[in-house]
Specification:
alpha/beta, Glutaredoxin, Rossmann fold, 2 domains, 7-stranded mixed sheet, 4-stranded mixed sheet, 16 helices
């Protein structure tokens, strides 16, 4: 029996000893740890694959800088035509004021809403040949190509969105976007190129106005091209068309006339406005050749009836412009008045005003038509004034304000008016801000073009179609007093490292035991 028991115990111990190596392997802590890491890696890989195919993006910023509005989402998803978005921009590492990161995020979200939207990026520095070829095809001039922007195209219609209109930047301590306006202006461009009917803008041409076909220094060829590029149809308007009541035009533009309008023509303009027409006038001071007296154009009475008065003076301002005649040509950055859409669009941008006259709001009691409302858009600084003595223009005496006859600053130089019938009028006190000499210059010093196009958009009504405001970037700043700074130092530099050291010493001591 003893022998049998020994044999059985020996055989069992042999089995156990034979199975012991595998058991040791399976029960090894290192193997279990390695298997756990392997399974974790597989799970992470599967999670990344699922996330890549079914990703969801969220915007946790308070102002929703990286989110599209419901209006944008609805319009893009309802597109019936193919839209191409071309981005002409360089990265911020080569151009501090570049908006490429924000623009890329914007157009990526727009393109993700519809398969009809395609996007391409062009770096004018790295690929100048391709950039110039595309710019020529899309109607982008060399100055815009240099500064960068976005072109929205559909059905051979293009609209350019400048970088300046897409954001407000501060560069004092490095690049910082204070407000991103890209969604609104890109959406407005998208609506402009996809709508079926083009707004007709008629340029008056029979009263000494600058010709829209001319690219000479004093012509309007470049600004007419800008109007076409913004999605409008440009036509000439002669005196007969004015007298006939301007039947085919949505907006009438009269730029720098030098000859008086006949009564039938002003009557036709009056009928046009009574029907809800839209009118823009660029009316600088009209003088004789010797600059000894002012000439009237026959439009003064019509404008007064619609709440706008143009005066016989020359507005001067000490805010001079380098390379221009002092006082006679001046600049403003903060002279935009009130919350009007035109003034709001130009806030903080420099515009230059050469040889400008005063344009002011008429008191409501003097209005002929009820329901007319007029507001000032732009004015000089407090040091500016309206000079009435024309002998100063000859240099016979220095320009200085005479309180008895001159208008004390700030002096209004641009006014907008609306009427209950739907009529809209914008009057600027100069026609020289958008002539070819200024528009063709590669040295960009002003935003006169943007002011002109903002006024045109308001007249057409496109500024109301897009109700997407700017996205203000969050700038959180924590301010601590000396006592709070001391407590932060003691906690982060002294207390936390000391606790970590004590825990480590405690673990080491227990292991030694």
């Amino acid at each position: 029996m003893a022998l049998i028991r020994r044999a059985q115990s020996g055989s069992q111990s042999g089995v156990r000893s034979g199975a012991r190596p595998w058991a040791r392997v399976l029960q090894s802590g290192r193997l279990r740890l390695a298997a756990g890491f392997a399974l974790l890696g597989v799970n992470l890989l599967l999670l990344n694959v699922i996330a890549a195919r079914h990703h969801v993006r969220s915007d946790w910023t308070a102002s929703k800088v990286h989110s599209l509005s419901e209006r944008t989402v609805g319009l893009v998803r309802a597109l019936k035509r193919r839209v191409a978005i071309t981005v002409f921009m360089v990265p911020p590492d080569r151009l501090p004021e570049s908006l490429l990161p924000e623009t890329r995020e914007l157009v990526r979200r727009i393109a993700g809403l519809s398969s009809r939207v395609t996007v391409q990026y062009v770096d004018p520095d790295l690929d100048p040949t391709r950039a110039e070829m595309l710019a020529d095809r899309l109607g982008v001039n060399r100055r815009d190509l240099k500064l960068g922007g976005v072109v929205v195209s559909a059905d051979h219609r293009n609209r350019f969105v400048s970088t300046a209109s897409m954001a407000e930047l501060r560069l004092e301590r490095g690049r910082r976007v204070t407000a991103f306006c890209g969604e609104g202006v890109v959406l407005e461009a998208l609506i402009s190129v996809t709508r079926r009917e083009q707004t007709v803008v008629c340029f008056s041409q029979d009263h000494g106005e600058a010709p829209i076909e001319s690219y000479a220094d004093a012509g309007y060829g470049y600004i007419a091209d800008e109007v076409r590029r913004d999605g409008y149809q440009v036509r000439r308007l002669d005196g007969a068309g004015l007298a006939g009541g301007v039947a085919a035009c949505r907006v009438v533009l009269i730029g720098g006339p030098q000859q008086a309008f006949l009564p039938p023509e002003t009557d036709g303009l009056q009928r046009f406005l009574r029907r809800g027409g839209r009118l823009m006038l660029l009316l600088g001071p009209v003088l004789d050749r010797k600059a000894t007296r002012y000439a009237h154009l026959g439009l003064e009475r019509l404008l007064t009836e619609w709440g706008i008065q143009v005066l016989d003076n020359v507005v001067v301002d000490p805010v001079s412009v380098s390379g221009e005649q002092p006082l006679m040509t001046w600049a403003t950055r903060d002279g935009y008045v009130g919350d009007h859409p035109i003034a709001r669009a130009m806030n903080g941008r420099i515009t230059i005003w050469p040889l400008v006259r005063e344009v002011r709001v008429v008191a409501s009691g003097a209005l002929r038509f009820r329901g007319v409302s007029s507001v000032t858009l732009v004015q000089t600084s407090d040091e500016g004034w309206g000079e009435t003595d024309l002998t100063s223009l000859h240099g016979e005496r220095p320009l200085r304000m005479d309180p008895s006859v001159d208008t004390r600053g700030p002096v209004s130089v641009a006014v907008a008016a609306t009427a209950a019938a739907g009529a809209r009028i914008v009057v600027f006190g100069t026609e020289r801000g958008v002539i070819n000499r200024r528009m063709a210059s590669l040295v960009v010093r002003d935003h006169n073009r943007d002011l002109f196009l903002a006024a045109l958009g308001w007249l057409d009504g496109s500024s109301e179609r897009v109700a997407v405001g700017p996205k203000v970037s969050e700038q959180l700043r924590l301010t601590l007093d000396p006592g709070q700074l001391t407590r932060v130092f003691l906690i982060s530099v002294v207390a936390l490292p000391s606790v970590s050291l004590l825990v480590g010493l405690l673990v080491w001591w227990r292991r030694r035991r």
